[in-house]
Input
Amino acid sequence: MPARLVLQFRLTGTVAGMPTVRPYRPQDRAAILDICLKTGDDGRDATGLYSDDRLLPMIYAEPYLQYQPELAFVVDSGDQTVGYILGTSNTVAFAQWYRQVWIPRNAEISLDLTTEAAQKLWHIHSNPEHLRRPELLDYPAHLHIDLLPEIQGSGMGRALMKVFLRTLAAATVPAVHLAMSATNEGAGHFYRRLGFTELAVEEPTTT
Output
């Protein structure tokens, strides 16, 4: 009988080289804000695209971590956070909180708004009421999802969506929406494969 080897592997937390989805932790905050910026131009790096690199994360990432962190999940590569999904289960309530809490909380931050692009982003930041469109009332939750290029196409985006949607369903949230750039064809294909369908909304927002 030929000699044989018995191999063992003890699973202790995240295995290096094997990305996993897990709930957000406060120590993920800096990585999430960085990923938001590094993917903010239709999935490409938006560093320098606006006159202040803090604008994108201030609008599309950090407020969700503050408002509803239990709906934030990350892709952990074993040694760093390489992707995330976050959002809210109640867009109307989120918009109200954003107006009453988030904007005043950041009122003292001095931002560089010298370019037209930055001014347009600031307008979005200053007017959270744009989230409360009547066409979206039947889809109360909304989300943002971003992955670094090296993890895109790996199946981790689908894994993030699965855990996020499962969490919403467990909270009896009936439906969810998201906004995206009409020119981001890759993202459009991804969402449609998951079963998302286009909703007619006047003057849609972009992420």
Notes: Residues 128 and 184 are 23 Å apart (CA to CA).
